[in-house]
Specification:
By secondary structure, the chain is an alpha+beta fold. It has 8 helices and 10 strands. The chain is about 30% helix and about 30% strand. The strands form 3 sheets. The chain has a 6-stranded antiparallel β-sheet with strand order 4-5-6-9-8-7. A two-stranded antiparallel ribbon has the order 1-2.
């Protein structure tokens, strides 16, 4: 099963965050100059500029006139963030967990009233639902239900193990559709018995109801995601503009 290529800037961003978190720059208040970072990471200054722009947007660094690129260690120390759209596996990798996933089932059914409204489709249009478990160091920590419209696929839906890929990659590779933004609703919840059984956990959870849209405002994904309350401690970084 072929994975889509990873963009160079995405790879370098992850590497630089790892260096920061592992103390590569010691107790330095600021990052080295762009040309020095380019040598350390063996990429061009153009790539470094792109990466620094993303880090600034996400609050990891602050550009200070006459001082340089200041490392925001308060934000750097945050373990899990809800304000950045990380795919599950990337989120866990960044915190040094061995991640895994397994598909519990893929089924199809007519859209019905709720999904008809979400996808702006007809009630008889076919929905594909993928139920999946994500693990961290072999412990189940996320239960996810992804809903896709069958007619978004450009060909017959491939075999079930395709959905071990993250759903964004599935949409881009098999539907030629890209999610550009999400609308997310956070719901603290005591999940039903089936979800608690899948996650081997009886306590409170954070449920995320999420709708994914293209840049043309086309709805292409709906997800229900359950995060174990004893494993995830989320933060949101709010910047003033």
């Amino acid at each position: 099963m072929e994975k889509p290529p990873v963009k160079l800037s995405t790879k370098v961003l992850k590497e630089l965050l790892t260096l920061l978190r592992e103390g590569f720059f010691g107790d330095a208040e600021t990052l080295p100059r762009e040309e020095d970072l380019a040598k350390i990471l063996q990429v061009s200054r153009t790539v470094i500029r792109d990466v620094l722009k993303i880090l600034e947007q996400e609050g990891y660094i602050i550009r200070v006139k006459k001082k340089g690129t200041v490392i925001n260690r308060k934000v750097l120390g945050v373990k899990f963030r809800l304000d950045i759209e990380y795919e599950f596996r990337t989120l866990l990798e960044m915190e040094r967990y061995r991640h895994g996933s397994r598909v519990l089932g893929v089924d199809r059914f007519p859209a019905g009233e709720e999904l008809k409204e979400i996808f702006r489709c007809k009630g008889e249009d076919e929905i594909i639902r993928i139920r999946k478990i994500i693990t961290a160091d072999s412990q189940p920590v996320i239960y996810c239900e992804d809903y896709l419209l069958k007619n978004h696929f450009r060909e017959e839906v491939p075999r079930e193990d395709l959905f071990l890929l993250n759903v964004y990659d599935v949409l881009e590779k098999y539907c030629q559709e890209r999610i550009d933004f999400n609308v997310t609703n956070l719901v603290p919840i005591l999940a039903d018995e089936k979800v608690r059984e899948h996650l081997d956990y009886q306590g409170p959870m954070l449920m995320v109801k999420e709708e994914g849209f293209t840049s043309q405002l086309k709805p292409i994904l709906y997800s229900n995601i359950y995060w174990r309350g004893d494993f995830f401690d989320f933060h949101i970084i709010r910047k003033r503009y």
